Amino acid sequence: MSTVNISVPFDEEKLKALNFTLSKDNSTAQQRIEKMVIELYEETVPEALREYLDSKSAPAAPKPKRPVKPAAPKPQTAPAKPSPSAAPTKEDEKNG
């Protein structure tokens, strides 16, 4: 969800005094105003609408990765029988 800046007119000297005083509590007028706007939003906007807006801005749950299938083993073929050749083999000599 994108954010917007809200501009509020306020006396510069008063803002300096406010920030000076808030600095003792490690805070600023900006931080306090942001907190107050969030509280105003939560008190004013109905919960169902807030949940709807939250669901729109929430990143979608990552899809689980598909497991990697191992490569299918290639079917092994029986070794081819050598074709009879013109040259005699040892068995041919014994038988022959």
What this model shows, in words?
- The mean pLDDT is 84.
- This protein has 96 residues and is mainly alpha-helical.
- The chain has four helices and no strands.
What attributes characterize this protein structure?
rod-shaped, 4 helices, mainly alpha, single chain
Short description:
This protein is mainly alpha-helical and 96 residues long.
So what's the overall shape? rod-shaped
What is the element string, with H for helices and E for strands? HHHH
Tally of contiguous helical segments: 4
Termini Cα gap: 92 Å
Low-confidence stretches: none
Mean pLDDT: 84
Largest beta-sheet details: none
- Helix amount: 40-55%
Q: Give the strand content.
A: under 5%
Structural class: mainly alpha
Oligomer category: single chain
Specify Rg, calculated over alpha carbons.
40 Å
List strands and helices in order, with pairings.
Elements: H1 12-23, H2 29-44, H3 47-57, H4 90-95
